[in-house]
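Support request from a user on the community tier.

User writes: "When I paste my structure tokens into the form, the page sometimes reloads and wipes my input. The last time it worked, I copied everything first. Here is what I submitted, just in case something in the input itself triggers the reload:"
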């Protein structure tokens, strides 16, 4: 399946998640309240943190190795079976540590009901094997499965979640969604590769998983662990503010993340067959798409944070405005990191650079967590994320430039940033001239979109946008 079709399926999936998020998130935050949202965020992030130990980089290895060996059935069976056995070993050890932590750590023990429910999620996450379908570039199955299950999830939320006391039911529904995804994946995996317990070679994948797993664990110090740490040293209200701002950021970043996940198996395949020209061409296009999409989103969302928070979550979450403004600055930074890590360094097996960057990010994140989080709560945690991600991306860029792996597109970065600055003027003008918050967002969005399309097509002649515009013209002329 080609990149365009995969991107379309992943975009459909991402857009559906946008819609589902916009349907459920305002409802859930208003019904459950900031404190319960904070509790759920604390529990869920703690489980996700343990989930990293249950997989230890297997998702990256699985996607890469399946993509590299798509035509070799015998090798595919060995890779798949070996990785499943490794996941089983890691999950057993992790589950033991997880249950022990719940019993011994007081801040976890007081939410033990939710944590015991979440133990099922930990197992489901470990065996979700999305990496198998990504390696085969079968994003159609992933999209159809997710949209169907999430659709059922939305309906059940509106049926069962009616008041603040329903937060346990909400979490059961969330865990059940993950479980259903995993069961569907395991069922369909048999049509691609059979699991053969005696056809395994664990040693090489253990070594790779430890390297990439170390990267995941270190990265989680400032992405996942920081929410857990905030819950341990502060209170669930602060977690609720941070979790809300992080959720909105994740929804907004989701579109570009969809594109990146599509590209990784294709880049691995291009490296394996030695097509470096196409590899470099696709990297250039990735950066152009990133800068075109993320600069205007970053500027608009930073300025309109008060309106976005109020419309989506209500006045109870006003404490999430400043954390959101800080976190939204990361959209471009994390986008660059995703391209360099997932599309360049992982396919080229530069795992040591990724490890070095993640060690630096983890050290900075750990120090900043200790200094900032207890005193400044959600705002401090947002700064930890910003500083850590900036340091990681800087190390990626320095190593890419030093090794001359690719040419970093400084010109495209500066051009797209400059062309996006007037969006700030549009958003501020809307805030000054319009009274209703939802009207401010709608008018600012469409005015910014119109300006940005004209500026890209007329002033800087953005190839990607011109191509898309011509495609849309051809489609409408045909119909």
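"...and here is what came back when it finally went through:"
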């Amino acid at each position: 399946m080609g990149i365009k079709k995969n991107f379309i399926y992943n975009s459909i999936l991402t857009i559906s998640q946008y819609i589902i998020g916009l349907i459920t998130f305002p409802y859930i935050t208003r019904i459950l309240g900031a404190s319960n949202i904070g509790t759920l965020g604390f529990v869920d992030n703690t489980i996700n943190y343990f989930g990293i130990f249950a997989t230890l980089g297997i998702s990256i290895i699985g996607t890469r190795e399946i993509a590299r060996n798509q035509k070799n059935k015998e090798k595919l069976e060995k890779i798949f079976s070996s990785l499943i056995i490794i996941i089983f070993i890691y999950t057993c050890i992790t589950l033991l540590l997880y249950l022990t932590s719940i019993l011994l750590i007081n801040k976890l023990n007081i939410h033990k009901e939710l944590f015991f429910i979440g133990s099922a999620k930990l197992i489901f996450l470990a065996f979700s094997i999305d990496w198998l379908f990504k390696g085969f570039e079968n994003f159609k199955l992933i999209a159809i499965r997710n949209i169907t299950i999430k659709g059922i999830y939305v309906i059940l939320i509106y049926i069962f979640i009616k008041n603040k006391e329903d937060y346990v039911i909400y979490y059961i529904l969330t865990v059940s969604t993950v479980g259903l995804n995993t069961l569907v994946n395991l069922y369909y995996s048999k049509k691609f590769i059979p699991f053969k317990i005696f056809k395994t070679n664990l040693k090489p994948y253990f070594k790779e998983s430890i390297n990439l797993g170390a990267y995941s664990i270190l990265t989680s110090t400032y992405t996942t662990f920081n929410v857990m740490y905030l819950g341990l040293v502060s209170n669930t209200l602060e977690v609720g503010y941070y979790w809300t701002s992080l959720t909105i950021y994740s929804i907004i970043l989701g579109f570009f993340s969809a594109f990146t996940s599509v590209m990784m198996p294709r880049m691995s395949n291009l490296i394996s067959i030695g097509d470096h020209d196409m590899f470099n061409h696709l990297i250039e296009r990735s950066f152009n798409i990133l800068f075109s999409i993320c600069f205007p989103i970053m500027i608009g969302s930073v300025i309109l944070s008060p309106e976005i928070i109020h419309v989506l979550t209500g006045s109870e979450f006003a404490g999430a405005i400043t954390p959101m403004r800080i976190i939204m600055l990361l959209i471009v930074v994390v986008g660059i990191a995703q391209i360099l890590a997932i599309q360049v360094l992982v396919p080229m097996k530069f795992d040591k650079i990724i490890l070095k960057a993640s060690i630096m990010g983890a050290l900075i994140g750990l120090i900043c967590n200790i200094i900032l989080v207890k005193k400044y709560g959600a705002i401090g945690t947002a700064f930890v994320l910003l500083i850590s991600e900036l340091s990681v991306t800087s190390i990626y860029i320095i190593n890419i430039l030093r090794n001359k792996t690719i040419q970093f597109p400084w010109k495209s970065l500066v051009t797209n940033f400059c062309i996006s600055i007037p969006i700030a003027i549009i958003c501020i003008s809307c805030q000054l001239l319009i009274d209703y918050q939802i009207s401010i967002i709608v008018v600012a969005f469409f005015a910014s979109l119109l300006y940005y399309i004209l500026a890209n097509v007329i002033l800087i002649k953005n190839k990607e946008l011109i191509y898309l515009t011509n495609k849309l013209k051809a489609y409408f002329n045909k119909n």
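Agent notes: The reload is a front-end session timeout and is unrelated to the input. Residues 12 and 143 are 7 Å apart (CA to CA). Residues 3-420 form one domain. Escalated to web team.
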